[in-house]
Every structure is written in structure tokens, then in C-alpha cells.
Design goal:
Order of helices and strands: HHHHHHEEEEEEEEEH
Number of helices: 7
Structural class: alpha+beta
Shape: elongated
Strand content: 35-45%
Distance between the termini: 40 Å
Largest sheet: 7 strands, antiparallel
Number of strands: 9
Number of domains: 1
Helix content: 25-40%
Length: 208
């Protein structure tokens, strides 16, 4: 890729939270069940005063790892592949492999949702399963796709605005709103198939 890559984790700035923000989140009401479970599990175990804060920091670090989802390849392109204007280029009978097509997509929005789960434990005792709620919406000001051999081989982005939230138990604890630093031309090397191989396989089986 020629342009700068950005992940959902970077969009939310999970690795940029300061100690004060982490402490504020760790002491918030939504995390009280975890704190209570930890207190019960730690009976007879001497814990430092900073243990709960440190545990929460480790959880955020792990959540950041789980959200290392590339915004272009993992969010935008999967949504574009369902666009009617792009679908026909997945048919080699209509568009032979040597043909190169330029497909512009006007302003549009792409939404994404994820539910990563963590299950911290203490002294071999589970502190409970925690399913996070991740939601994002990205307003793409313009995208131009270069398609060849039923694959997206290059993308040019004019600009993106994004909003998103991280939640737990139905309560949002982190929100993001602003410009996404994902502008320019992106070469996709071997290309991304418009129609997933397993879908083509199923179609062949259906025709038998």
C-alpha cells in the first residue's frame, strides 16, 4: 500500500489513553461487577493497591490487539464488495481478466460492528466474561476503485469522517468522532477478489 494504513484500534486511540483516563474508566460504574468479582476471587491473596488499575490497563491493551482490524481491508472493502456497481466486475464472462475497469463510488457511509470478548481470571478463578460492543460509522467522501481480473487492485480515497463507540453491558465508555487519516492511493498487491472463493465454489456446486 502506498497510503497510510489505520486500524480500528488506532481510530479509537486505545493505545493513547493516559493514566488518568484509564483510572477514570476503571472506577466507572459499569466495571463494578468486575471489581466485585476480583475482590471475591482474591480472598487470602495479597494484592497491591494498583492491581485493579493495572488489570484494567492490560484489558485495554488486549482489546486494542483484538481491534487491530485494518480499516480499508477489514471494513471498507468488504462493504464495497456488496455494492451493485462492483458486483458485475466479479463475472469474468462479462469482464475478461485482461480488462482494467475504473469504478467510482460517490459519497456513502459504511457501518461496522464487532463484539470482542475477554475473560480475565485471578488465582485460576474466572472473573466473568466481558463482551465489548464496538460500533463505527465511516462517511467516505469519495472512492475510486481499480478492478482487474475480478479483483480490486487499487483504491484512491478522497477523505473519510468517522464516528464510533466502545461499550460494555449496553453502556458506552469511549466515543470517537472526527477525520480519519486515510487519504491517498492504495495498491492492494495481489488484489482482493470481488467474489469470495467459497461463494464461487458454492455457486458451482449449485449448478451441478
Amino acid at each position: 500500500m502506498n497510503g497510510k494504513q489505520i486500524s480500528l484500534s488506532q481510530f479509537f486511540g486505545l493505545n493513547e489513553l493516559g493514566d488518568r483516563q484509564v483510572a477514570s474508566l476503571a472506577n466507572s460504574e459499569m466495571f463494578q461487577p468486575l471489581q466485585q468479582n476480583m475482590a471475591e476471587a482474591s480472598q487470602g491473596v495479597s494484592l497491591p493497591d494498583s492491581f485493579y488499575h493495572d488489570l484494567f490497563q492490560v484489558m485495554l491493551d488486549k482489546l486494542a490487539e483484538l481491534l487491530e482490524i485494518d480499516l480499508l481491508r477489514g471494513v471498507l472493502i468488504p462493504a464495497w464488495k456488496t455494492h451493485p456497481d462492483l458486483q458485475e466486475y466479479g463475472d469474468p464472462a462479462k469482464h475478461p481478466p485482461e480488462e482494467t475497469a475504473i469504478v467510482p463510488l460517490v459519497e456513502h457511509s459504511v457501518t461496522t460492528r464487532h463484539a470482542p470478548t475477554l475473560e480475565p481470571s485471578l488465582a485460576d478463578r474466572s472473573l466473568g466474561e466481558m463482551e465489548f460492543e464496538v460500533e463505527g460509522e465511516f462517511w467516505v467522501k469519495g472512492a475510486i476503485l481499480e478492478v482487474r481480473d475480478a479483483k480490486i487492485v487499487k483504491v484512491r480515497l478522497s477523505g473519510i469522517e468517522g464516528t464510533g463507540s466502545l461499550g460494555l453491558a449496553g453502556v458506552s465508555f469511549l466515543q470517537k468522532d472526527g477525520t480519519v487519516d486515510l487519504v491517498g492511493s492504495f495498491d492492494l498487491a495481489e488484489g482482493v477478489p470481488i467474489v469470495d472463493p467459497e461463494v464461487v465454489e458454492e455457486s458451482i456446486v449449485d449448478q451441478c
